[in-house]
Amino acid sequence: MKKWSILAATAALTLMLGACGTDETKEKSSGKTEQTSTDKETSAESNAAFPMTVESLTASSEDRESGSSTVFEDVTFKEQPKRIVTLDYGFLDTLDALGVEGIVGIAANGGKGNMPEHLKEKYINDDVTDVGSLKELNLEAIAAAEPDAIFISGRQTSYYEELKEITPNVVFIGSDNTDYIGGVKESVDLAAKIFDKEDEAKALNDNLSAKVAEVKEKAAGYGNALVAMYNDKAISGFDDGKESRFAYVYNDFGFKPATTNIETGSHGSDFSYESILKVDPEVLLVIDRGVESVDVLKGQIENDIIKKTRAYKEDKIVYLDGTNWYFSSNGITTEVEKMQEILDELK
Questions:
Q1: Counting Cβ atoms within 10 Å, is residue 249 exposed (0-12), middle (13-18) or buried (19+)?
Q2: Cis peptide before 51, with omega less than 30 degrees from 0?
């Protein structure tokens, strides 16, 4: 009788433990089901915007040398791109700032590409395919990366049709000089729309607007300025004309041009040191295309002629980083850094 009581008690205890275990299992199972359901809802929300049709930031681009024009087609993404090749350092900077993942190819040029250091450290590695230089692409490498989106700018326009054979999802993200800062914001908004990063985009664009206001206030304190670019012992000047590569320094940043109506373009007007002395700018902004050290650049620029200028006499020659100014323009981070360079030097 006693033995039976013990067995009965043991059986009852076993049943109780089994029931508890079953309840715990149900709770865990239920929790897992709920999590899976949440993941599915999030995925459904992120894909709700697709298929999505986007326009290039500029409808067409004209090659100044050949005179030929390339018209960019609208792109319809069936789903959010997961494998991205970007051939513009500025747009790579923007994607990175937004926290977009899935970069599988960049124009690293064997590690010699003139991109900002923070991008080199993150994207020059074995996981990201090197697809050539900004102007000489390796189409086989791009195809091998199996991209479902390719982003290009002016330097790659001649490859547009060939890139579309790899994927029809080729988007031109270059913009013209009519509203430079507006174009930067548009590129941020375009990336945010495709990759569901609207909140991040707003914060970045608000910060950009604040920095523009800051540099405009600083620029208002000077009578005039000249933007010049130095490359391999040659110097070129830029005014505020619509064809001028750095017209935005005047039109968007607020500096008054020391000279106008000069024949400029993407590489500026050939200038001599005597030409700079003739316009005698209060502020001389020198963009270093060759990416020299500042000390080396000063030694080449500040000759006896330049020492006669007002900018030299008043210590208002500003040396600007060619990586950001020439090779990585239009990136949301680099644009803020460019303006900060000016602010730091014109204290």
A1: buried
A2: yes
Place of tokens 């003139």: 114
Contact present, 123 and 93 (Cβ < 8 Å): no
User: What angle do helix axes 332-345 and 180-195 make, rounded to 10 degrees?
Assistant: 140
Contact in structure between 226 and 284 (CB atoms under 8 Å):
yes
Task: Tell me whether the omega of the peptide bond preceding residue 147 falls within 30 degrees of 0, making it cis.
Answer: no
Q: Count the alpha carbons within 13 Å of 321 in the hemisphere toward its beta carbon.
A: 19
What are the 10-residue block averages of pLDDT along the chain, 347 residues in total? Answer: 38 42 41 44 66 95 77 97 98 98 97 93 97 97 98 95 98 88 97 98 98 98 96 89 92 96 65 92 94 85 96 97 92 97 95
- The pTM score is 0.85
Q: Which of 236, 344, 246 is nearest to 290 (CA)?
A: 236
